[in-house]
Design a protein that fits this description.
Strand content: 15-25%
Number of helices: 5
Strand order of the largest sheet: 2-1-5
Structural class: alpha/beta
CATH class: Mainly Alpha
Largest sheet: 3 strands, parallel
CATH architecture: Orthogonal Bundle
Distance between the termini: 34 Å
Radius of gyration: 16 Å
Amino acid sequence: MNRIEIEVLKPQAALDAFSNSWRRAETGEEVRPRLTFGSLRELFSAITEKRLELLQYAASHEDLNTRQLAQALGRDYKNVHADVKELVMLGLLEKDSKGKLSAPFDEIVIHAGIREAA
């Protein structure tokens, strides 16, 4: 199963995680894909309920273009286009040269602590 981990981390913790991943990758160790956000607000702004719904649909119905996806979801093309653009930028959705969409991950795991680290 191909999965991506999404974390909410303070800036220093995000830098530390990046450094650790970089070092592991340099030694040839497999490093799982991950996204980090500085706050829950940033996370929920980037990955909205509508975008998650879009992503789930695209994962189950690959090779649709943006217009077909908008029609299937009963949503305005302009809004779906903006959501697709953001999800592609985040790496959660891929678009080929013909405009066909696919989801590179089978699972998204979100980690968000609710307490400050001691």
